[in-house]
Structures are given as structure tokens and as C-alpha cells.
Here is the input.
Amino acid sequence: MTLAYPLDDPRTARPAAALNDVMDRLGTKMTFGRDEEVYAQGDDVEFMYRLTRGVIRTSRVTADGRRQVGDFYYPGDLFGLEVGPDHQFSAEALTDCEVQIVRRGSVRAFAGDAELDRAILDATRRELQRVQEHVLLLGRKSAREKVAAFLMSLAQRQDEEQIELPMGRQDMADYLGLTIETVSRMLTQLQGEEIVEFPSFRRFQVKKWHALEELVD
Here is the structure.
């Protein structure tokens, strides 16, 4: 499972610089409290968003009333990109957040710059790629592998001894296509085998990297 590359990722450094420049010039910073909605499912796609602080969750409610979590976004991530005119997912602040927002029409005014055009295309392509990888995660892995992959993605992103877990068990379950009971049971198993350790409800530490990697591979 792969999360989105930040805009300053070295693999896309040149086009990212152009897009960062536009966001810095034209973007308006807005703050959102925990669980506050940034945009709703079905809203028109009018803006581009870059997260500067906190964690954003995207989710959608299906026709039968079930909630699906699309992804989690972290500082530096661009979100809200869609190939169609409407948002297929809503976006909510998982924690207190600061978001840089710019109208897509304003960005188009700078689109004569080929470097900027390429940056927007790359960002859209990466968003589609993460959706595809999420689908593969849902369809091909066992519950144990799904939870292990999720924890590893967080550990690799934060690169700290103790990793923050900003989302609750229900968010994890709705992202992984599992029940909250199954997620809790898998976490208990992984801790019981001393692969990970949870010093608190929202923090964990990887104790056996090799064992975790074997589950993911």
C-alpha cells in the first residue's frame, strides 16, 4: 500500500516546485477543527487543496448507508483532485488541520507554464495510482496482511521510533474493508507476537521489522 508522494518529493522535484509556487502565491490558508468537513461528497470540484498541518480523511457513504474511507492525507499532500466535475468522496479533518486552498480556475491562469501543466498531471496520476493500490489492498490480502500493511505504511511515512496513529479503529476498519472487531483482533495478535507494541491507544512501535515485512510481502 502506498500513500501519496508529498509535493516536495525528490522524484517529482521540478514540476512540484512549480505547483508549490502557485499554491504559495494564490492559496488561502484555512483551518478546520477535528471532524470538520472540508468539502462534501457530490460537491463541485472548484478548488485544489494542499495540507500544511494535521491529517485529512476522505470518505464516502454508499447507497446502502455504509461508509468507505478513501485515504488519509498528511502535511505536504495535495488532495481533492478529481477526473470528473464532482467530488466522489468527502474530506474531513481527522485532527485539527490547516489547509492551503486555491481555485482551479486561478491555477489554469498559470497553465501556460508547461512545467506547471506537468505538475498537475503528475499529481492527478499519483492520485489515481493510490486509488488503484487501495483496490488491490482490499481485494488481495487477508485481514492480517491488510492491518500489517497499514501499520507499515504509517511507520515508513513518519520514520520515528514511536508512530502516531491519528485515526481510530473504526477509520482503519472502514479503510481496510474490515469490521472494527477484526481490526482490533489483528492488532491484538500482532502485539501478542511482539511484532508491534502499543504504548498507548494512538501510538505504536514496530518491534520486529522483518516479521512485519514478511506479512506485507
The longest strand covers residues 47-53.
